[in-house]
Amino acid sequence: MVGSLLLVVLSTALSLSEPSASARQAANAVPEGRATRAPGELSPAEVVVMMDAYAMVQAQNALQLNDSQYGNFVGRLKALQETRRKNQRARNQILQELRKLTGAQVTAIDETAVRDRLKTLRELDDRSAADLRRAYESLDEVLDVRQQARFRIFEEQLERRKMDLLMRARQRAAGRRDSGQ
Predict the structure, then answer these.
(1) What is the reported pTM?
(2) Tens of pLDDT along 44-76?
């Protein structure tokens, strides 16, 4: 019941929301041959948009936001989400470079390049932490202390729901493969 309700809410949210720049970028990054999918299957970009919209809708209830808070909250929540994605993309890129520099196929490790990438990763992690701190501070400005605490709890619950949905989707996909579909 909760899963189908979530799907309905997410579908509605997707139809009402404009994809963010990062979601459009993710959708455009899918190689052409892999862009085909079964009816009803969502792209990663669509899932991102849907989860963001779901978070915004659910946050109003979970935090008991009044109408005057909600507008400011939504803008700041979007900024927080975009900050996370931007930093994660940059981190993934650096990690990919480290994989190439240290992979099993590499016979001679370029230690200078690896050290440089590790230094860049540490600097990015520091900047990311500062960026997230600023985004949270901005979000906290529109919330009272109780709402701030509830938001942190809400985020944790939302993350658990995402993981649960991911696990269910993987189980269903494995079931379809096993049954020959």
Answers:
(1) 0.70
(2) 778 888 888 888 889 999 999 998 899 999 999
Q: How far apart are CA 121 and CA 126, in angstroms?
A: 9
* Three-state secondary-structure class, residue 181: coil
Distance between CA atoms of 65 and 74, rounded to whole angstroms?
A: 11
Helices 145-179 and 2-16: angle between axes, nearest 10 degrees: 110
CB atoms within 10 A of CB 73: 22
Query: In 31-144, which residue ranges form alpha helices assigned H by DSSP?
Result: 44-63, 67-102, 111-140
The residues, ordered by sequence, that sit 6+ positions from 131 with a Cβ below 8 Å of its Cβ are 83, 87
- The DSSP symbol for 54 reads H
Residue 112 phi, psi (nearest 5) = -65, -45
Distance CA(43)–CA(23), nearest Å, equals 10
